Amino acid sequence: MNNFVSDSFKNKNVLLGITGGIAAYKACLIIRELVTRGADVKVVMTPAASEFITPLTLSTLSGNDVVVKSFPASQKEGVSLRTWHIETALWADIMLIAPLTINTLAKISCGMADNALTTMVSAIRSPLVLAPAADLDMYQKPSTLENINKLTDRGSFIIDAEIGFLASGLTGPGRMASVEKIIDATELVLSGYKKDLVGKRILITAGPTLEDIDPVRFIGNRSSGKMGYKLANSAFLRGADVTLISGPTNENTYPEVKVIYVRSAAEMKIAVEYELKKNDILIKAAAVADYKPSVFNEIKLKKENKLKSIELSETEDILASINKENKIVVGFALETDNEITNAKSKLDKKNLDMIVLNSLKDSGAGFESDTNKISIIKKDGNKKDFDLNTKFQIANNILTELKTIK
Predict the structure, then answer these.
(1) Which of 186, 291, 321, 370 has its CA 20 to 30 A from that of 159?
(2) Distance from C-alpha of 202 to C-alpha of 204, rounded to nearest angstrom
(3) Catalytic pick from 13, 64, 103, 221?
């Protein structure tokens, strides 16, 4: 079986715009990530941006010339009849501006083309992704928010600034989004997705549950939580209000996602029951333990006691027991045999609207992997298969299918 998964950025042309803010240094990290993932990156920057980071640095990282000015300093240095801004605009598959100052934000919203970067924006045909950054009072000015709304209405994808420590020493909204979120959002838009889940309140569970034997030992499984966390990130980027209930995992999500950490199946059940009342959709991606020790030992079991067995009892089935009235509920089935039959049985018995099936027989799917291969089965019996892909892309496949459920 061929397990090769082509990166979404491979052989794509990414035009990166950089404006004059302190967050300009993070452009180096963005370029490195895009180039590592196979993109061809070209940079256009404002003269103010070159006060924070040199064109030579950006050229070295991208492997391409960097445009700073629309015209040479003097015609004695030569002239060109080439319409470089049109050529580069046609070359780009996507344009990302990070950081975007409120000055350039205002210019773009008004359609100005007074420097190389704004001229490029005026000529661009590809999707435009914008990551604004400013100090909190500048970012929260009504004029700034109006300009952001204008560009959103015109189809630009805005990666909202985060709350955090700012260059002024103040703390509040205005810090440029993390490099990880910017890369994710750019991949999202490059893949054809938009903020199409605005107004949806989605509850997602992720990771394993651990059932304690004693203060030291537990029963668990190999779930890493990657699939659930990618679902949470993707749903947030697509505009949803996301709550994530997570078992123990090393994964991280965006600061805007509400995260509730639990350990056991019983704790997860309580959290799901409470949070589901406030949400429209439940995606149950967690690998909840089916069994737990019947008795928890308050002290560590000693090897000298020659423990030969542990009595187990069933955990309560969360999907079967929760109130699903007026909710859309999605389950997961990880199978090793009779995959379709078992998944359909789970779909029916637990009264789900949709089930996501993956098989441990498929290399690259299942626990701990960065990739997955799934089939989606809906209540009406419709089944759709998806090829092996990254869990970020699979998450968006799931969310897109979810949108079709009435």
Answers:
(1) 370
(2) 6
(3) 221
Give tens-digit pLDDT for 169-205. Answer: 999 999 999 999 999 999 999 999 999 999 999 999 9
State residue 397 phi and psi, 5-degree precision: -60, -45
Residue 144: phi and psi, rounded to 5, are -65, -45
Whether 149 is catalytic is: no
Structure tokens at 10: 């491979």
pLDDT at 3: 61
Half-sphere exposure of 377 (CA within 13 A, CB side): 19
pLDDT band at 368 (very low <50, low <70, confident <90, very high): confident
Question: What pLDDT does 1 receive?
Answer: 39
C-alpha span between 152 and 159 (Å, rounded): 10
325 phi, psi to nearest 5 deg = -60, 130
User: Considering only CA atoms, which of 184, 177, 370 is closest in space to residue 255?
Assistant: 177
Q: Which pair of structure tokens corresponds to residue 268?
A: 């997860």
166 CB-near residues (< 8 Å, 6+ apart): 135, 136, 172, 174, 175
Query: H or E stretch including 164?
Result: strand 162-165
DSSP state of 287: B
C-alpha 150/C-alpha 165 separation (Å) is 27
pLDDT tens digit string along 292-309?
999 999 999 888 777 788
Is pLDDT of 340 > 50?
yes
Tell me the per-residue pLDDT of 250-276, one tens digit each, with 9 for 90 and over.
999 999 999 999 999 999 999 999 999
Strand pairing class (281-284; 328-335): parallel
Strand 157-158 and strand 66-67: the pairing is: unpaired
In angstroms, what CA-CA distances link 21 with 75, 118, 120, 131, 141? 30, 16, 19, 12, 17
**Separation between Cα atoms, residue 169 and residue 248, nearest integer Å:** 34
Taking CA atoms, 269 is separated from 134, 246, 260, 284, in Å, by 41, 12, 12, 11
What span, in angstroms and rounded, lies between the C-alpha atoms of 28 and 23?
10
Question: What integer is the mean pLDDT of 226-234?
Answer: 97
H/E stretch holding 97 = strand 94-100
pTM value is: 0.93
Other C-beta atoms lying within 10 Å of the C-beta of residue 351: 12
